[in-house]
Amino acid sequence: MAGPGRNGDLLVQRPEGLYCPPGGFYIDPWRPVDRAVITHAHSDHARVGNGHYLAARPGEAVLRTRLGDIDLQTLAYGERIVHHGVTLSLHPAGHVLGSAQVRLEHGGQVWVASGDYKVAPDPTCAPFEPVRCDVFITESTFGLPIYRWCPDADLFADINDWWARNIVAGRASVLACYSFGKAQRILSGVDPSIGPIIVHGAVDTLNRAYRLAGVDLPESTMVTEVNDRADLRRALVVCPPSAAASPWMRRFGDAGTAFASGWMQVRGNRRRGGWDRGFVLSDHADWPGLLGAIGATGASRVIVTHGSSAVMVRYLTEHGLQAQAFETEYGGDAVEADSDAAGTP
What we know:
By secondary structure, the chain is of the alpha/beta class.
């Protein structure tokens, strides 16, 4: 059965995911379907088992790295195709490499499904592009007023200073973050002249896909390639959270540890995780970013998916928009903590 919605809606809820009835396809389905439009390659949005995949061309290498040999069709951003009378195009979401919003046009209606997105600048992916529509389906991972990101210049100055201070103290700087998107954004923003950069195998695999797509990243090595133990004590080590809690960490000895995530906005999360430092860095929009993105679409109706959906729906309704929530199986930032263990140590 379809979930909450109206007759004639271009997207409805089904057990398999968000379904387009006139087009006969799904967007980011969480169960296997015949035709899937994928907004980006994070594991809660791109899953194995679908018959045919459609995604933005810049994300092809990452999708194939993560999903293997799939039947994949790609579109350039802004390129339009018509399927069963539905005009479909993909537009930059600014979340990670290849992330896209899905624009659907049919029967005089225009709908846009955002997938995950951020509006902050990021040199590793195309910037978010507002798309005018009648109905906007938005994520709300950090949809609370407490979430407000600081400028990247300030953030990376703090990371560089933490790294440099650890070198003076004679210990490595282990920075945990999700291997796809977050790691590459960090690598693009830090100062590589401070010291060597070591990456976990899961990060290295995605770095290769990013470089294949033309993204410029600083030189890095894996720990198995480091022969000089002095380099270990001077290094910035970028790894997924799962590795930071595993025996893989022993080779770095008494290292400084930090976690980069939007969840670090709440100090208690850093304490509970046992991190020395928490850097507030997210690949999702903060509260002002979400509201700005929603407003830029001109949509009179907004459907909110994962995250703080109830708060966002209430806020939008109080400000004169038609708002509701769709329940999904998307996990936002949290899902990658479990999936990032893959890869060579």
